[in-house]
Design goal:
The complex is a heterodimer of chains A (130) and B (148).
Chain A (H helix, E strand, L loop, with lengths): L5 E5 L1 H11 L9 H6 L9 H16 L5 E8 L12 E12 L4 E10 L2 E2 L1 E9 L3
Antiparallel strand pairs in A: 1-3, 2-6, 3-4, 4-5, 4-6
Chain B lengths: L17 E2 L2 H10 L10 H6 L12 H8 L1 H4 L11 E10 L8 E14 L2 E12 L4 E11 L4
Antiparallel strand pairs in B: 1-3, 2-5, 3-4, 4-5
The chains are: A alpha+beta (130), B alpha+beta (148).
GO biological process, one term (chain A): fatty acid biosynthetic process
Family (chain A): Belongs to the enoyl-CoA hydratase/isomerase family.
GO molecular function, one term (chain A): fatty acid synthase activity
């Protein structure tokens, strides 16, 4: 079963706010000068910010903010965030892989940016009501 | 310099307790756009059976990233952090983190491998309360990029 697609807009302001809230001040997430110096196309989103947005998608699908029992991803491609008002967009989809007798639902999640997968092996297990 | 393989299986001493604040959870939830009332309103969290506001699923990284400095900055292990990129991340929860938790991290080195000139370090951080209740286990795979 495929779950409803969720999209998340990401701007530079979001990265600054996430840096402050998470304590991850790596300059590749706020300085183009630094990011390009280390071979990136420009400022990229924190991998953990992308994972947090996917976490929002998962809890929304699960219908409860405390439903996640296991959540893992592999970061495969950086999410470049341009310095403009629109930023970029992360599109999150998922399929239900398994529903267990113990009331757990296992999801295979896909996250893309500009049509390219930014995560692989993204999986979540959520406790479903009942 | 390659990572020292003898670190596989090594466990570090517990970190100093981290006090999970209600405002920190609200700040983190706001930063990721998580608007569910259970992240912001203690009453809404209590209605779900929690003692106080509930952290979003990836919140533990705030605690474990700080805790992992113990390992990343261990000169004996020899990580060049300027060449590190984040490979994998996983959380396995016993229960969600909630405001009021006092959490201790125990870091261990689970695996060190190398492939294609890069090195891969998998760490496991067991996060538990100061009373010894386990809350979440967190795995991170760091990729130390080889020098071109």
């Amino acid at each position: 079963m495929e779950l409803p697609t969720q999209t998340f807009r990401v701007t530079r302001a979001d990265l600054v706010r996430y840096a402050g809230a998470s304590g991850d001040f790596n300059p590749i997430h706020w300085s183009d000068r630094f990011a390009t110096k280390v071979g990136l196309p420009g400022v990229i989103a924190h991998g953990m910010f992308t994972m947090a947005l996917v976490g929002r998608a998962v809890t929304t699908w699960a219908g409860s903010p405390d439903a996640v029992v296991d959540f893992g991803v592999r970061f495969t491609r950086p999410v470049a965030v341009p310095d403009d008002d629109t930023g970029t967009e992360i599109v999150v989809t998922a399929v239900v892989r398994e529903v267990t007798d113990a009331g757990l639902t296992r999801l295979d999640v896909t996250a893309t940016c500009l049509g390219e997968k930014v995560l692989s092996q993204a999986r979540a297990t959520v406790r479903t009501a009942g | 310099m390659p990572l020292d393989q003898s670190f596989v299986g090594r466990t570090y001493p517990p970190t100093a307790p981290y006090q999970v604040g209600r405002e920190k959870i609200r700040e983190f939830a706001t930063a990721i756009g998580a608007t569910d009332p259970a992240h912001h309103d203690p009453e809404a969290a209590r209605a779900l059976g929690h003692p106080d506001v509930v952290a979003p699923p990836t919140f533990p990284v705030v605690i474990t990233m700080a805790a992992s400095r113990q390992l990343i900055e261990d000169p004996a292990l020899g990580i060049d952090y300027s060449r590190v990129v984040h490979g994998d991340q996983r959380f396995a929860y016993t229960r969600p983190v909630v405001a009021g938790d006092e959490l201790v991290c125990v870091n261990s080195v689970e695996e060190i491998t190398s492939r294609g000139g890069h090195e891969f370090l998998t760490t496991r951080t067991d996060v538990s309360t100061t009373a010894g209740e386990s809350v979440v286990a967190v795995w991170s795979k760091l990729v130390v990029r080889g020098e071109a």
